Amino acid sequence: MRISNEEMLAPTDIPFNQVPPYRVKVVEYTKPTTRAQRKELIKQHNWSAPNLPAEYVYVNMVTDSGTSAMSDRQWVAMWLGDESYFNCKSWYGLEDALQTFTGMKYILPSHQGRSGEGIVYEEFVKAGDLVPSNCHFTTTRAHCYYNDAIPMDMTCPEYYDEKNTSWFKGNIDTVKLEQLFKENADKIGFVELVAPNNLCAGQPVSMANIREVRRIIDKYKKRDVIFSLDVARISENAWIIKKYEAGYGDKSCLEIVQEMMSYADLSHMSAKKCGLVNMGGFVSVRDKINYMKLQPKLIRMDGFLTYGGLAGRDLEALAVGIMEGVNDYYLEDKQRQCDVFANACKARGVATFNPACTLGAWILAEYCLPHIPKKNGPGTALCVQAYIEGGVGFTSMDSLHRGREDSSDPTNVEKIQLAPYELIRCAFPRRAYTDSHYEWCAESLYRAMQWGDKIPGYVRQKMDDIRPPLQKRDIGLRAFFDEYEPLFEHP
Ligand code: F0G
Question: Residue whose CA is closest, atom 18 of ligand 1?
Answer without folding.
Answer: 65
